[in-house]
Amino acid sequence: MSEQTTDKRVREASRRHFLQAGAALAGGSAVAGLGGSGALAESGNNLPPNVPEWMKAPGAPMGSQPYGAPSTYEKGVIKNISKTLPQYISASGRTPLQDLDGIITPNGLFYERHHGGVPTIDPAEHRLMLHGMVDRPLVFTMDDIRRFPSQSRIHFLECSGNPVYTKPYGKTASDLVGLLSCAEWTGVPLKTVLNEAGLQAGAKWIVAEGADAAALTRSIPIEKCLDDAMLVYSQNGERLRPQQGYPLRLLVPGFEGNMNVKWLRRLKVVAEPVYSREETSKYTDPMPDGTAREFTFYMEAKSIITRPSGGQKLTAKGFQEITGIAWSGHGKIKRVEVSVDDGESWQDATLQEPVLTRALTRFRLPWHWDGTPAVIQSRAIDETGYVQPTLAELVAVRGVNSFYHNNAIWPWRIDANGEVSNAQA
Amino acid sequence: MSEQTTDKRVREASRRHFLQAGAALAGGSAVAGLGGSGALAESGNNLPPNVPEWMKAPGAPMGSQPYGAPSTYEKGVIKNISKTLPQYISASGRTPLQDLDGIITPNGLFYERHHGGVPTIDPAEHRLMLHGMVDRPLVFTMDDIRRFPSQSRIHFLECSGNPVYTKPYGKTASDLVGLLSCAEWTGVPLKTVLNEAGLQAGAKWIVAEGADAAALTRSIPIEKCLDDAMLVYSQNGERLRPQQGYPLRLLVPGFEGNMNVKWLRRLKVVAEPVYSREETSKYTDPMPDGTAREFTFYMEAKSIITRPSGGQKLTAKGFQEITGIAWSGHGKIKRVEVSVDDGESWQDATLQEPVLTRALTRFRLPWHWDGTPAVIQSRAIDETGYVQPTLAELVAVRGVNSFYHNNAIWPWRIDANGEVSNAQA
């Protein structure tokens, strides 16, 4: 749906709800006797037209935070670390999606998942080795990598186990799909570096190895390496965070998170995949017939409503914007449909422009909540025409033994008191 | 220039330089005897094929940083705070542009400028009053503001005094134009809120007031308020940082930074500008004939090469990517031209897509540095056709009494030893 159409729909919603419903919506409180005067009087509280405490004395001086931090009032907006899962050196921390706006995840809240703790790597000592079926095996310093022609692209990253198929299901958007973030990445197209070494005939896969204690290793098809894969050193302008692979990671946009190998130290060009631990005992999908899907690279189209979402509460009837995020490993999001009547009917949401390939896409739908219980949900359709399935549809095909690639629709229940909870929990 | 054209040019540069020049470029060091073997042997150092120290023991566990921070190896990448200017409560901190990639500025490094210190505002107590020439004066809580239909947009912000016209000029890109950053902002279109209050006939300006100790006040033309102005509560996904106006700021994309009033508490709709301190004694431009330009809202088209740039050093002859940023308050960047011969000739740089209106645009040009002294510079052309001027052209018209709106081209000198410095300093 175009932004023009939305403007029209918002105007209509405004005529119908903002004004006729009076103070029910966001319209704020009418101020008696202030039209055109604007005089600011003192009367003992912080509300306009009075002068709040924080205007009466100078604020904090410069220099106390040469690298800034959020307001102390936002101290609850942190990575969501499970209190029940073991959280030692094989750990995950989720992005608090329900507290965020837009599509960029700030670096401090980017999700993390690691298998041997987060290494502390001196970039001056870090090396990337490129060898195997190449004409010239090479070793690169970080300075070497940074001298290649660069690119910047906004892409999402998602863990393939996001969320699990079986109860207990999470209560919040972050509990369910918080192993998901999106950033502007800068680095070198991998194909540029491969061309420098010269691929030999028969080269079909590249084995990527991380410099962490788990030596995480994955096999990547050569087609992806020659397409949009990147060697990345920066996220959202600054250098990678340690949890995201400082000083160098592989980025394979749209592929499951663990294939975007962090702390990248080695690329070996080979003819066959290596069948590493992370592509045999882990990151394969047991099916109901006893077989297992392997090399399930692509993260399929998916979406989630982040506001209103589980754990939040609507405080008043009337206008309520429904907003969330959609993404697909196969390319651009084409459409997001939202239902506010437990799946009976669906409306097109507005997509925030620009819609970028393999990036989060923010969607929005103006809604009037009449104060009665409701179930709301979103489903994403990507540019291939693929439609995000229901959990029942997904389980019917995949069973519940798999841990990965659950891209089901996730509905939220809104109670009459405004409380929002997981409708499938 | 299209990305396809660049790919071609990079391939040509590669054929001519990466390979024929051997190790001169980024090609890294050839590894003898490793072709196809890939065996990792130990021999007492951290370089491949050896196992570095940080792979031999588990890394840092989860949970020590619920809100993340950069690597300790990046501790020098901080806001650039002048040691010579008074830095008390009327202060500025600059973004380290020469250390950043892409177009997004991470929130921890976003530039700041304030006139009465940074207030600590409780969002539950903050109010925005909208009054003056409106049908219904209104007071909004932050919850009210967040219930309106939202938008997210990527826009730059720049202080109008960036840089000064007279020596001493800064040594680095940050010294010169570091009062510049770019983020994805989320908030409410101001026109939506104005429509809620109902503008009266004759409403021509809106006076915006901040809730800081300076009560910073600016008059904004009503046309801008009804165009792309926003009430913003989030930057790069999370809530505004205190230094950027937490919990609410005005965003007037493309207008000088101080008009994007932070800690926004009051909007008064009026027929005439108020001629506040910040639009009379400050933020006006004294001209050579004794008059002063006032209400110089728009930040004109501008660009700067960030790599190589002042304070950096080229470590080897051969391939060198030239990259930088360009921006215009009037809309999209149409073209960036780069000269590597002290302005004798100019080449089109590649613009990173998507090119967004009133946002930073990253540009790049592949270059072969032959090891002799050179002067490099960039000039931006925006979609209106406006061309970024030289400092001499600008001073010829404006003189040197003005402090604001210096959007001159800024060349860098590269010495034979690779050291980069300000060519006009």
Automatic annotation (TrEMBL), chains A, B:
Source taxon at top rank: Bacteria
Domain Oxidoreductase molybdopterin-binding: 115-273
Stretches assigned to the Moybdenum cofactor oxidoreductase dimerisation domain: 297-409
SUPFAM superfamilies: E set domains, Oxidoreductase molybdopterin-binding domain
Cofactor: Mo-molybdopterin
Keywords assigned by UniProt, alphabetized: Metal-binding, Molybdenum, Oxidoreductase
A GO biological process held by the record: sulfur compound metabolic process
A Gene Ontology molecular function term of the record: molybdenum ion binding
Pfam families: Mo-co_dimer, Oxidored_molyb
InterPro entries referenced in this protein's UniProt entry, alphabetically: Ig_E-set, MoCF_OxRdtse_dimer, Mopterin_OxRdtase_euk, OxRdtase_Mopterin-bd_dom, OxRdtase_Mopterin-bd_sf, Sulfite_DH_SoxC, TAT_signal
The name this protein goes by in its record: Sulfite dehydrogenase
Lineage: Bacteria, Pseudomonadati, Pseudomonadota, Alphaproteobacteria, Hyphomicrobiales
